[in-house]
Amino acid sequence: MDGTNHMHHVRIYRASPGICLAVPEPVKSLSSVKLISRKESPIDVHISKLVKSLNLAGMRTNSSCEGHEDPSKPSFPYVDFTDVQHGLGALIAQFNETDPIKWQYVPGSSLSPSPLARHRPLAELQESAERLADFLFTNWLKPQLRDGAARDTW
Questions:
Q1: Is 32 within the bounds of a domain?
Q2: Which of 16, 24, 53, 153 minimizes the number of CB atoms within 10 Å of its CB?
């Protein structure tokens, strides 16, 4: 033992029905936030970062999917919610300026690749969802969390 105290504080937030977030303090990256879900409704791996970032922003997500190769199921990733988050639309537009996959934000409804982008290979759509999650964390959430403006009411 080197005598150094390596304890970190972790806050547990109820983010959405069936979802909790374990948020270390301080939050250094989105990957350090752990998503805790009910076993009967696990969060798909390739959409979990986006679900985490939206829940950290205070949006209560209703459902999500990473997309499927099976044509009888949704072929693109999406997140559904009922909340409206001011400023999110402008950030999505900013992200869309640089990412090859454009995302459509419908306030109070959903976030998904735009209809014109949905024909792209599923792996590309999933990678874009992860880039969007990182973009939201870096440009929206991290400054709020750093400044202590994170929601304590989750």
A1: no
A2: 153
- Pairing between strand 9-16 and 110-113? unpaired
User: Residue 64 CA to chain centroid, in angstroms?
Assistant: 10
Give a yes or no: residue 114 inside a domain. Answer: yes
For residue 49, the number of C-alpha atoms closer than 13 Å in the C-beta half-sphere is: 18
Query: Domain holding 69: CATH number?
Result: 3.90.1150
User: Does the global pTM surpass 0.90?
Assistant: no
Cα separation of 7 and 146, whole Å? 19
How do residues 17-59 score in pLDDT, each as one tens digit?
Answer: 677 777 777 777 777 787 777 656 678 999 999 998 888 877 8
Give CA–CA dist 88/144, Å, rounded.
14
Report the alpha-carbon distance of residue 51 to residue 19 in Å, rounded.
Answer: 10
For residues 127 and 111, give the distance between their C-alpha atoms in angstroms, rounded to a whole number: 15
Contacts of 74 (CB under 8 A, 6+ apart): 65, 67, 68
Q: Give the residue carrying structure tokens 């959409």.
A: 47
Q: Is residue 60 part of a domain?
A: yes
Q: What is the pLDDT of residues 91-131, one digit of tens each?
A: 999 999 999 999 999 988 999 999 999 999 999 999 999 99
